[in-house]
Structures are given as C-alpha cells and as structure tokens.
Amino acid sequence: MPRPEAELLEIVKSLKASVRELKTWGIRDFLKPPPKPVPASSPPQPLTTPEASTFVAGETRHLFPGLAPETAGRPAIPAFQSLGEIQEFLKDCSRCRLSQERNLLVFGVGNPRAEILLIGEAPGREEDLKGEPFVGRAGKLLDQILAAINLSRREVYIANIVKCRPPENREPWPDEVETCRPFLTAQILCINPRITVSLGAPATRTLLATKQPITQIRGKFLTYRLARPGQPDWKGIILPTYHPAFLLRNPSRKREVWEDVKALREELDNPGSKTGPLNV
Ligand code: SF4
After folding, report:
1. If I label 156, which of 8, 30, 263, 265 is the partner at 20 to 30 A Cα–Cα?
2. pLDDT in the model for residue 276
C-alpha cells in the first residue's frame, strides 16, 4: 500500500507541474477564481437566435443585406471532393477586393482529416508573405496553446474565414466574408472535423451567424449545421474562444482560453463528456 507521504509528494509534484504550465501561459493569478466559470459538462446547445441558421456550400446567402457579394454573375462554384481541388480552384482567385493587395493566398494548413479544425479571421502580414496561417506572434501563441493540450499544428487543421489579407489588418468586410464563405464551407465539409474551434469574434460570428458577443458564448460547445444541396445537413460542434492576437493584447484573458482548451482536451480524451449526443 502506498505511504501517505509518498502520495503527498506525488500531489505536490503534480501541482508544481500545473503551476509551471500556467506560468508558461503568462497566468500568474491562478489562485483567484476564474472570472466566468464554464459549466463542467454543458451539452452542445443550438443557438436560438434568429440569426443562427445554415449556409450552403457554393451559395452566397445574403447575410448582410445591402452588400452584394462580388461573386454575382460568376459561374457557379463546383462541388469539391478534396482540399486540393478547392486550393487549385482558388489559386488565382480575384472574387473580392482582398485579392488586390495580397502577396500569397493563405488557404490553410494541417491534417486534412483532422478531428480539430481551428478557424481564425484573416491572414496578417506574415501569413500573407508566407502563405501559411498563424505564423506570426499570434501563431506562436497558438502553437503554445495547442502544445499545452498535447496537440500540434500537424494534427489539427488551421484556416481563416477569408483567404487573403485585408489591408492594414482590418477586419474583413461582410461582403468579403460572404464572397469567400463558400470556400470555407467546402473546406469544412472536406475535413469533416469533430470539433471546430472558432478563434475570435469574426470567425464565431461567421460560423454561427450570430450577433451574440463572444464573451457570452466562448467556452460553450455549440452546434452548427451546413446545408448540403441534395443531402442531409452536415452537423458539427463548435467551441468559440478568443483569438491568440487578442490574447497578446489582453494577456489577462489567457485564463479563459486555458479553461476552453482544457475542456477541448477533456472532450478529445472522453468523447461526449463535454458535448453529449449531437443534438441539432
Ligand atoms: S478572400 Fe477569398 S474570395 Fe476574396 S480573393 Fe481571396 S480567396 Fe478569393
């Protein structure tokens, strides 16, 4: 039978390891209670707002009335069988104004069969130069976040809602998002992820078609659907959290993301423990 002192030593060792982990995240106020605790096992909830609806691959639904998508008058977007096909199709894309100042189109990177799909907002300066998402400071932080839950960018898939860099790193405009949306939808359908992590408010708004602030819905496993012509809807789980670039500006919010990714790890280790049955 293990001696109580030995058990105590094990607990102290494990606590020290946790403290070291938190410090690498810049979290030093870990003795305080988290500002907004996430319920331990909240099943995925469909958003009930009127905006929470579906969008169709290859279709440009007018989420933002008044702004005509720049795909108007173009040939229909074909159905894609693979990420390679989508990437090839997008190669010289000039469907929206973001093509005008880009250096490289940033399609996405990672495992094409990933269980976890991370979706950010748009490429930044370094991504635009390298053609890969999340390679700047925010990308390094994202790598640390993934490493903290024993994941690497080779295991997940990382993409953005628009594939070209908005000038001055501004938020993509609604018509640009709408124009690029069919390709994001096609990516999601090809990857078929078990959990999509939306990084930041613009990605969350786009995927859930919601106006709810991210502060209200981050850390919750929600459900979303993608309509597929002639087939039943594709159903997925989405976990909104903050964008790493936001964390660089607001390090005190790292704790909330830490809670979110811990829940993600738990769900990966024990499928259904955080999400329950997919009920959308
Ligand atoms: S952002 Fe999307 S739609 Fe616009 S040019 Fe780039 S790939 Fe094409």
Report:
1. 30
2. 75
Q: Say how far apart CA 124 and CA 245 lie, in whole Å.
A: 10
What are the tens digits of pLDDT across the range 246-263?
999 999 999 999 999 999
For ligand 1, whether the C-beta of 254 sits within 6 Å is no
Give the C-alpha separation, 122 to 202, whole Å. Answer: 9
On the question of pLDDT at 95 being above 50, the answer is yes
Query: Considering the domain 49-69+78-269, what is its CATH architecture?
Result: 3-Layer(aba) Sandwich (3.40)
Q: Is 164 in the pocket of ligand 1 (CB under 6 A)?
A: yes
Q: Evaluate: CB of 180 within 6 angstroms of ligand 1.
A: yes
pLDDT value of position 207: 95
Sign of CA dihedral 159, 164, 168, 171: negative
Distance CA 45, CA 224 (A): 9
Q: Where are the domains of the chain?
A: 49-69+78-269
- The closest-lying atom of ligand 1 relative to the alpha carbon of residue 122 is 1
Nearest atom (ligand 1) to Cα of 96: 4
Alpha carbon separation from 70 to 120, 123, 198 (Å, rounded): 22, 20, 25
